[in-house]
Design brief:
By secondary structure, the chain is an alpha/beta fold. Among the domains are: 162 residues, 3-Layer(aba) Sandwich (Rossmann fold); 103 residues, GMP Synthetase, Chain A, domain 3. The chain has 13 helices and 26 strands. Strands 1, 2, 9, 10, 11, 12, 13, 14, 15, 16, 17, 19, 20 and 21 form a 14-stranded mixed beta sheet that branches. The protein has a four-stranded parallel beta sheet with strand order 4-3-5-6, covered by helices on one side. The protein has a three-stranded antiparallel beta sheet with strand order 7-8-18, with helices on one face. Helix 5 links the parallel strand 9 and strand 10. Helix 1 packs antiparallel against helix 2. The chain is globular, with a radius of gyration of 23 Å. The model has no long low-confidence stretch (mean pLDDT 92).
């Protein structure tokens, strides 16, 4: 079925079924379908048609969701980006996507491209009746800065069709799902839209806040939530009496992905909620391959992100292109069963390939049973004095400190070592003046071998990662190299 038609399908079965709750307002499937029909006619009046791309710089909320379905109803493809992108970055994306229309806040205007401001409601005389069914040739286009910091498009090769009777893995019919992440990132986008494709109830946060996330889970009896480790860390840092004051008995699955989850943090969540509610996925927007691991499997394979799932094969290979032995770190490659580049295509970048095998750019190893363990991204690895330092390992140790809210470790040029590990540390407000470099070095000394401990530290009160747990390492690195040059 065309995904533009799935709202009408679910509305036909139960018009009052709740579709989306946002800011304490709940919209049923019939209303969301009607609103997106009127929005589709508004977009069509601005020239959007079958095969076009529409760039959406729209914050999470009802307007974004109704506009997404409007785009699909016209047989067009949405390209979701952050509503707060700097002008130059947005322009670079637009020049790659070449959209028929940009929809966004005023800061998203790009000279030479048609634009519709958020909050521009369709004219009252536009019909809410169904439109002719159309299928988008590409159901979504996401963006990524990647390791280079230059924007690229990741075009999903799947057409805009969905089976409204098919329930996503680990979910159940009619589940209530909380979305705490920004929909310009792939995982929140897919989780939120697939919830609606299958007739679920989506509770949209708008912007992540750890205490409010628990409040919404308890209030709406949420069954399923997708988190990234940054969110898990912020929730865990809440006072225990707050964290334990909410009724989370409805929560069946905590699905996490997006970055390596520190072992101590994952163990804490398993101890808190139990292993049967924790599920982890490793993969990427390109969907060339994924691994999955349950909480119980993880207890037997601590630190693993699981085994490769049906639909692709996985290999870990060294720099000579040879398959690594169990325990040997190499680059992780996947090959989809349908062949290379069968799931996506890049615009503005080239895939990292070894023959037909493709990589997300991560390093890791497998154990004797085929479970995968992530070391870090190849581009993030620091070579210091001939030794490899994986920032994720150092950050996981730093983030165990009770006063550290987040940390980023980068490699900076060093005349003696080649690179030195430099830690940028976000501290709680109360401890900002009381935690020193030496305090952190002493804390890390019990957790890391000496050469992995950062040579230099800096402290900040700014968030180092966005709500999806993403950090702009290349920019952080470049800014600091420029400042000392």
């Amino acid at each position: 079925m065309p995904i533009g038609d799935v709202l009408a399908y679910h509305a036909g079965k139960d018009p009052t079924r709740p579709a989306v709750t946002y800011n304490d307002v709940t919209v049923c499937y019939a209303e969301l379908d009607a609103r997106s029909n009127r929005k589709a006619r508004q977009l069509a009046g601005l020239g959007v048609g079958e095969g076009d791309v529409v760039t959406l710089a729209v914050p999470n909320g009802l307007e974004l969701l109704e506009t997404l379905f409007a785009v699909w109803k016209l047989g067009a493809t949405p390209n979701s980006v952050s509503s707060k992108l700097p002008a130059m970055e947005l322009q670079a994306i637009v020049e790659l996507a070449r959209p028929r229309l940009i929809v966004g806040e005023e800061n998203a205007r790009v000279a030479g491209w048609d634009f519709l401001a958020t909050g521009s409601s369709p004219c009252a005389d536009l019909s809410a009746d169904p439109l002719p069914s159309k299928i988008s040739s590409r159901w979504k286009i996401m963006t990524s800065g990647g390791s280079t910091g230059r924007p690229k498009l990741i075009v999903d090769r799947q057409p805009g069709v969905s089976d409204p009777t098919k329930i996503p893995p680990s979910q159940m019919p009619g589940d209530t799902i909380l979305n705490p992440g920004p929909m310009y990132h792939n995982s929140p986008f897919v989780v939120s839209t697939q919830c609606l494709f299958s007739g679920g109830h989506l509770v949209e946060m708008g912007r992540f806040d750890p205490l409010r996330a628990l409040e919404l889970i308890a209030r709406h009896r949420v069954n399923w939530v997708c988190l990234v480790p940054t969110m898990m860390h912020r929730i865990w840092r809440l006072p225990a009496e707050q964290r334990d004051s909410f009724d989370l008995s409805s929560l069946r699955v905590v699905f996490h992905l997006g970055a390596v989850c520190p072992q101590w943090l994952k163990q804490a969540w398993i101890d808190w909620l139990g292993p049967d509610r924790i599920l982890e996925l490793y993969g990427g927007t390109e969907l060339m391959g994924v691994t999955l691991i349950t909480g119980r499997e993880w207890l037997a394979h601590k630190g693993s992100v699981g085994k490769v799932q049906p639909g692709s094969r996985m290999r870990v290979m060294n720099e000579r292109g040879e398959e690594c032995k169990p325990g040997e770190i190499g680059e992780i490659y996947f090959l989809p069963d349908r062949g290379p580049n069968s799931t996506y295509e890049y615009v503005g970048a080239q895939a990292k390939k070894l023959g037909d095998w493709e990589s997300y750019g991560d390093l890791g190893h497998v154990d004797e049973e085929g479970y995968l363990y992530i070391a870090d991204r190849r581009t993030d690895m620091i070579l210091s004095g001939g030794a490899n330092i994986f920032p994720a390992e150092v950050e996981a140790a730093l983030d165990q400190h009770p006063d550290v809210q987040s940390s980023i470790v980068i490699g900076l040029p060093d005349p003696d070592l080649g690179q030195r590990a430099h830690a940028i540390v976000q501290l709680t407000e109360a401890m900002r003046e009381r935690v020193s470099d030496d305090d952190l070095r002493a804390f890390l000394a019990a957790r890391l071998v000496r050469y992995k401990i950062p040579r230099t530290f800096e402290f900040t009160d700014e968030n180092l990662r966005d709500d999806a747990g993403k950090a702009r390492r290349s920019k952080l690195r470049d800014d600091r190299i420029v400042s000392v040059s």
